[in-house]
Design a protein that fits this description.
Length: about 1450
């Protein structure tokens, strides 16, 4: 009860304290400070003048730092001074925009170097934020300082770090991520908190975060912009008789939270192998968190590489059990334990035995069915590799050894003696364990075969002529008794007919299934076209061994073909009845079968003679006689192939050979017909080469031998003697009769329409040697003769005229009148187009020009005339394209047709006539105005003069320079127009009269407005005419002489009138102010300029533009041109004094500004120029002003704005260097070159090679760094220290590759990484793990003991340092020690199987490179036990006994303890 009261008392005490704390917490309120104190210190020697928001002006020669209760404070009441010792009250500072003041104080003071200038600038900005105006201050850099503070405020308070655009970041346990703020504000932030297990490293605008196993899945890191010591509530120190001050704190620290998703999972990689260590796909494993495999995580199947990886597993122990294997393996359902660690992959490898079986082989005779010994069989796997050979015994059986699961082939490789090898392949499949499969084979006896081939004795396999090797009949008879090999009985007696053979289309015959023995072969009947062969051929069929199924005998027989020659006689009777013998006539022989085969006599080859050679051509002798070669059996076609001149060949004839004879067959041939031909005349266009498809061309033909024209009688429809021939619409004509052989000439009598007659004859020859065609009858020859003509062409002519200046006269008023007359004109350009489609004259339908196509462009000559090139006949349009100089364009379009006249006129002409153009006119008007109000004035007399000599069209001077042309007076509208018909300026080059006495620099280049010798010139002073005011209006002074010049040079053909206006005004004083760039003298806009009097009075203020600034009516006197604010990018110019003179001329004042000049220097750590960096200049609005890539020289930039802060930012560092931090700089108002320096350091990366624990560096590994192109960047051997590489390119991808691992370790997988300064890449090596399989066997029969035995693995030979135990599997008698690293181990049996003696054998095993052979990491140890005598069981396991002693001891202790408690309780009750 007392204890309860004490607890109760403590609870009430804690509650009291808690409520006391709560009661002391409340919203801020005004508090009377017992001793609030405001002091000043540290004089700031700058004067200032300030006007507060109420209009009170305060001036101070200096100021001081203010402190409130020891903290820096700022004045918020600029119109009141601080009274020492004044009493202050502290309250909340509730000004409407107090946060702006807090931001100013934080950036301007707390983030500064805390100089006097920093404090003063911050104080001024606070006053301005409160509504005051800083009128002036001796602190000249306040403007740039203020801009710098404001820019930094805008940056850090308005822009978040760029990486905050992401909601969260993924990070893996043990790895790091680096966040880079490209906005450049994160460097101002400081850390406030982070989740457990998270470590951070901040460098400038980069933040590196690392997660450990202790990190939660959802972690955070928090930063705030405002440093903790400057966060709080701003309190107002106010006093009734002293200045109000505020020690400004920042109420909003601007906190950011970086959310992290921590990946804490690991993976399990399961590898399946068979007993050989080969990978096994499609094996299923169940994975569970429980040893009894309940509630499994899932079932997973290995892929093609024999592995499957289970991802996203929480770090803990898992159990793996095989549930399904491929059909060739034995399922192993043993449950295995595997431990998964975070961000690592645990490995488990399972191995299985193959299914095995045997094959039994048997051999029999197919006829008797008896078993056969001595047959040799081979067994092949599915890749065709021989595994085993077996020979059948006397029983005919043999059995193979064990074969693994799969498909096999059994095939006989050696047959029994006297049998043919059986090549049959027997497929065998082992599907179940201990399976036996029987294969039975049979062999066949050997047989004989005779193959007969018949050939021509000359040509071999090809028959001659139309003879054939098919159909010859042969008999096969026994030469001796033919025996049956099974019982030696006679199958055929000697001389008996065994078979009859007949040759087929290939001249072959055969007989099969013969018994072995000796035979006779003889021809009985010959084939067509051949003689009978009486030869007897011996045929022997002998046994050829086991590999030959059929013994084959090939027999060749040769035969002679039937053959005979023929004779011919060649004569001609010429129609007279007398026969002439013709010598030298040739005849060629071809076989009818070849003609049928090739389709024609021409395509067929020359026939072969009986010797197989090409038959000779028959050539008649002087008696016209010839004899052929002997030809083989068949039909032949004979053609006369060389015919006597001007004779026709005899028709082809046939010769048939059916007998075998040496006497030739006789023939006689007659021939007397001569060659004659029809002539076809064709009319051809000489230019196109095409036929002129027009009728009407008339031809004659002259016999050049007789020199007479050819003629003949035609009797239908009336008798007529024909000597001329006329072409029809096709442009051709043929003679009605044939002409005899000879030379002729074709003459043209009449040309076709549109063509010129061609009188040159065309010679031709009528002969069989002249190319000819035939008429549709297929017999009558036609010789074609072409005659060419040239088509008639035409030309179009055109003329041009217009008014030209000839003279000038003076009228009674002294005004000049110009005279013009009509003349032909040179230089007019005309265009000629087709007015219709212009067709070719040959009537072939070709269009030479389409309607509207341009045909020719012509220009008039000095005579004003022009003509076209030669054109085809037709209609054309002529139009003016370009008018002559001084004239306007004519729109007149005229049509001209070129028409054929007669056959002897080669060129015709068409006239387009004469075109007349208007000359370009000149109009000059004068205008008079009041210069002040622009009122139009009447009564001004304006006179027009010749400025230079005026030349006429012929080049003669008709008006002298300076002569008056005309005088006019302005009317009530202030205007007057000159009536003189002024000409264009026709001055020849030699007559140009430049103004003398005027230097070039005195004249404006554009001839705008200049004053020369007191005369104001407007326009080009070298113009032909000018006007000036010769009498001012009444009431106005003449003022300065003004001359307007009028350039009347011809402009273009579309401008009918040149109009000029001369405007005259009374003038006031005019001052033209130019603000120009000192580098190029161009007008410079944007500068604020002042005109002041000598005593400093400002007359006018303006901002310069891109044109000079003009002032009028400025009183004469002395002035100063001063620059208040320079144009952006320029420095302030010095004052320019100037004087305004009492004149109407424009007086010019020029002020020149120089540009700001900056030089950017980029260096490495040693100060050397560093090329290859991409840099940019950023203005205060965030815009890029300049961007470039550095080289080995400084970069120059001009025209940055004075007083403005810029950022020099590195966008991309040079290869192998880190990106430098931004460099802020302010442009000073000076003409000197200002420099900004930025330096870079090389990237530094660290590479660590560790063991799988990740805790220590692992020496001895050979490593490489390889770039994306495969180049080796660095190579080293790891030591106990991490490896450092400098100069890797940031952002570029590299590969860390292990070439060789340290002893006892596996080569790690390659690591692909992206280079970044300060980063570390860690590669872990896994130790090589091996397996020991202990096979427990009986020491006597060496069979597997399928009872449980226990083995223990030790690390020492004395077997005192136990590593682990393993029990044998009752299915295979094997215990497995897996996951063993390199080292020496000792294995001892610690529990024998039931019925066996415990062995004391200790087996030493060293796991090293020799033990681990490549991928084979499993080794087997055979461990034999002896059976116990008499069957007694002594396993050597005393565990139960020990447990019994322990239990007994515990039970005793429990009983004693219980008794003790009972005694105590009893005493207590007593």
């Amino acid at each position: 009860m007392k204890r309860y009261k004490e607890i109760k008392k403590k609870i009430f005490t804690y509650l009291a304290v808690f409520f006391m704390i709560i009661s002391n917490m409340s919203i801020p309120q005004t508090v009377k400070a017992a001793n609030a104190k405001v002091t000043v210190a540290k004089r700031i020697p700058y004067s200032y003048q300030v006007t507060d928001k109420d209009g009170h002006m305060v001036w101070g020669a200096e100021t001081e730092h203010i402190y409130a209760d020891g903290e820096i404070a700022f004045c918020v009441q600029p119109g009141v001074l601080i009274a020492e010792g004044a009493s202050y009250t502290i309250s909340d500072f509730n000004w409407k925009d107090f946060r702006k003041l807090e931001d100013i104080a934080y950036v301007g003071w707390h983030l500064s170097d805390k100089t006097d200038e920093d404090y003063l600038a911050t104080q001024f900005m606070i006053w301005e934020a409160l509504g005051a105006t800083i009128n002036s201050t001796s602190y000249s850099s306040y403007g740039s300082k203020k801009a710098s503070i404001q820019n930094k405020m805008n940056l850090i308070f308005n822009i978040d770090p760029s990486f905050m655009e992401n909601d969260s970041f993924d990070i893996k346990v043990g790895e790091s991520i680096t966040l880079t703020d490209t906005n450049g504000v994160f460097s101002y932030y400081s850390q406030t908190s982070k989740s457990e297990g998270i470590t951070v490293s901040k460098s400038g605008n980069k933040l590196t975060i690392t997660a450990s196993n202790d990190a939660p899945e959802n972690a955070t890191v928090k930063y705030q912009l405002v440093k903790k010591e400057y966060v709080g509530t701003s309190m107002l120190y106010s006093s009734s008789n002293s200045q109000d001050v505020v020690p400004l704190k920042v109420s909003d620290p601007r906190e950011i939270t970086i959310n992290l998703q921590v990946e804490k999972y690991g993976s399990l990689k399961i590898t399946k192998q068979d007993e050989d260590g080969a990978v096994v796909p499609n094996t299923s494993f169940k994975v569970s968190k429980n040893a009894d495999m309940s509630s499994p995580v899932g079932t997973y199947t290995t892929g093609a590489d024999g592995t499957v990886t289970v991802n996203n597993l929480l770090p803990q122990k898992y159990y793996v059990q095989e549930t399904a294997v491929p059909s060739h393996l034995v399922l192993d359902t043993t449950i295995r334990e595997v431990t998964v660690e975070a961000n690592q992959t645990a490995n488990y490898t399972a191995r299985n035995n193959w299914i095995k079986g045997k094959v039994q082989l048997r051999k029999i005779d197919p006829d008797s069915g008896k078993q056969v010994a001595g047959a040799t069989y081979a067994i092949y796997n599915d890749k065709g590799q021989e595994l085993e050979r077996l020979i059948t015994t006397a029983t005919g059986y043999v059995e193979s050894g064990y074969l693994r699961f799969g498909n096999y082939t059994v095939r006989e490789v050696i047959a029994p003696s006297g049998y043919i090898l059986n090549k049959t392949s027997y497929p065998v499949t082992i599907e179940t364990n201990e399976q036996k499969i029987t294969v039975t084979g049979e062999d066949e006896r050997q047989t004989g075969r005779l193959e007969l081939t018949k050939e021509d004795s000359v040509t071999g396999s090809s028959a001659q002529g139309e003879a054939t090797l098919k159909g010859a009949v042969y008999e096969l008879k026994a030469k001796e008794n033919i025996l049956d090999p099974t019982d030696q009985s006679v199958k055929y007696a000697r001389g008996a007919l065994v078979a009859t053979l007949t040759t087929d289309a290939n001249a072959k015959a055969s007989v099969s299934d013969l018994y072995l023995g000796k035979y006779i072969l003889q021809e009985k009947t010959a084939s067509t076209g051949y003689t009978l062969d009486t030869t007897k051929y011996d045929i022997s069929l002998d046994y050829a061994g086991q590999s030959v199924e059929i013994v084959t005998k090939k027999q060749m027989v040769k035969e002679r073909v039937k053959a005979q020659a023929f004779s011919i006689v060649k004569i001609s009777d010429n129609g007279s009845g007398e026969a002439d013998k013709l010598a030298g006539v040739e005849f060629t022989v071809k076989a009818q079968k070849d003609i049928d085969k090739y389709g024609s006599w021409e395509k067929a080859p020359v026939a072969k003679n009986a010797k197989g050679q090409t038959a000779a051509v028959l050539v008649t002798d002087k008696n016209g006689y010839a004899v052929s070669d002997e030809l083989p059996y068949g039909v032949y076609v004979v053609r006369e192939t060389k015919v006597p001149d001007d004779h026709y060949a005899v028709a082809d004839f046939k010769v048939t050979i059916t007998e075998d004879s040496r006497d030739p067959q006789p023939w006689r041939i007659f021939n007397d017909e001569k060659f004659r031909a029809v002539v076809k005349a064709v009319k051809v266009d000489q230019e196109t080469g095409k036929t002129v498809a027009l009728a009407g061309t008339t031809f004659k033909i002259k016999n050049l031998k007789t020199n007479e024209y050819v003629g003949y009688w035609e009797w239908n429809p009336t008798p007529e003697y024909i000597t001329e021939w006329m072409t029809d619409e096709s442009g051709t004509v043929m003679t009605g009769k044939e002409l005899d052989p000879g030379r002729y000439a074709l003459e043209e009598i009449t040309a076709p329409n549109g063509y010129v007659l061609n009188v040159s004859p065309v010679e031709f020859t009528v002969s069989m040697n002249t190319a000819y065609e035939t008429l549709p009858d297929g017999k009558t020859p036609v010789i074609t003769v072409a005659k060419e003509d040239t088509s008639v062409k035409g030309r179009i002519t055109v003329a041009k005229q217009g008014e030209v200046l000839t003279s000038a006269e003076t009228d009674e008023h002294g005004n000049t009148k110009f005279k013009y007359e009509m003349r032909k004109l040179k230089g007019a350009v005309f265009e000629v187009k087709a007015a219709e489609d212009i067709s070719s004259p040959d009537n072939q339908g070709d269009i030479l020009y389409h309607k509207g196509d341009p045909v020719d462009t012509i220009t008039t000559d000095a005579a004003g005339e022009a003509q076209t090139k030669l054109l085809p006949l037709g209609k054309y349009q002529v139009s003016e394209k370009t008018a002559p100089n001084g004239f306007t364009h004519s729109d007149d379009i005229r049509e001209v047709e070129l028409v054929y006249e007669e056959q002897n006129t080669a060129i015709v002409f068409g006239d387009a006539g004469t075109y007349e153009n208007e000359r370009q006119k000149v109009e000059v008007q004068a205008v008079k105005k009041d210069a002040d109000d622009q009122q139009l004035l009447a009564g001004a007399e304006i006179t027009l003069y010749a400025n230079r000599d005026v030349y006429n069209y012929d080049g003669d001077v008709i008006v002298k320079a300076g002569e008056m042309i005309e005088t006019v007076v302005t009317g009530e509208d202030g205007r007057a127009t000159f009536t003189a018909d002024l000409p264009n300026d026709l001055t020849p080059e030699y007559g140009v009269m430049p103004i003398e006495g005027i230097e070039d620099e005195d004249i404006d280049p554009g001839f705008g407005a200049d004053v020369i010798d007191g005369v104001r010139l407007i326009g080009d002073p070298n113009s032909l005419f000018y006007a000036r005011e010769t009498e001012a209006p009444q009431g106005y002074a003449s003022g300065q002489e003004v001359r307007y010049y009028f350039d009347t040079k011809y402009t273009n053909q579309n401008n009918a009138v040149l109009k000029f206006t001369a405007e005259y005004q009374n003038e006031t004083t005019k001052v033209e102010i130019s603000k120009v760039d000192i580098t190029n003298e161009n007008e410079l806009p944007g500068a604020t300029l002042l005109i002041k009097t000598e005593d400093g009075k400002i007359i006018e203020e303006w901002v310069s533009a891109d044109k000079p600034h003009l002032f009028e009516k400025l009183p004469a006197g002395d002035y100063v041109l001063s620059e208040k604010i320079p144009a952006p990018g320029y420095t302030t110019a010095t004052d320019v004094p100037f004087t305004v003179k009492d004149t109407g001329e424009i007086q010019k004042v020029i002020m020149k500004d120089d540009v700001t000049k900056m030089q950017i220097i980029k260096t490495d750590e040693e100060g050397k120029m560093l090329p290859g960096n991409r840099l940019a200049i950023i203005d205060q609005d965030g815009k890029t002003v300049d961007e470039w890539i550095t080289d080995d020289k400084p970069h120059d930039i001009t025209k940055l704005i004075v007083g403005q802060e810029y950022i020099l930012r590195e966008l991309e560092a040079a290869a192998g260097y880190t990106k430098a931090a931004d460099v802020a700089f302010i442009v000073r108002d000076t003409n000197e070159i200002q420099t900004v320096n930025m330096s870079n350091k090389q990237t530094v990366m660290h590479f660590s090679k560790v063991d799988e624990t990740g805790e220590k560096e692992l020496p001895g590994a050979k490593l490489q760094i390889i770039d994306k192109d495969g180049n080796i960047i660095d190579q080293w051997v790891s030591t106990e220290e991490q490896h450092t590489i400098t100069g890797l390119i940031e952002g570029q991808t590299y590969v860390m590759k292990e070439i060789s691992a340290p002893y006892g370790y596996e080569i790690a997988e390659e690591i692909t990484f992206t280079a970044g300064d300060g980063q570390k890449v860690t590669m872990k090596d896994k130790m090589i793990r091996s397996y020991i399989k202990v096979n427990k066997v009986d020491a006597e029969d060496h069979k597997d003991i399928l009872k449980v035995a226990e083995f223990t693995l030790y690390s020492d030979a004395a077997c005192t340092k136990k590593i682990r135990t393993a029990k044998t599997d009752t299915k295979n008698g094997i215990a497995l020690f897996d996951d063993l690293t390199y080292g020496t181990y000792f294995i001892k049996e610690t529990k024998a199987p039931a019925g066996y003696e415990l062995s004391d054998e200790v087996v030493k095993v060293t796991v090293d490179d020799e033990w681990v052979n490549g991928d084979d990491k499993l080794r087997t140890i055979i461990y034999a036990d002896k059976p116990l005598p008499g069957g007694a069981i002594s396993t050597g396991d005393h565990t139960n006994t020990i447990i019994l002693f322990i239990i007994t001891g515990l039970a005793g202790s429990m009983v004693g303890f219980a008794a003790y408690k009972l005694r105590k309780m009893k005493k207590a009750s007593d």
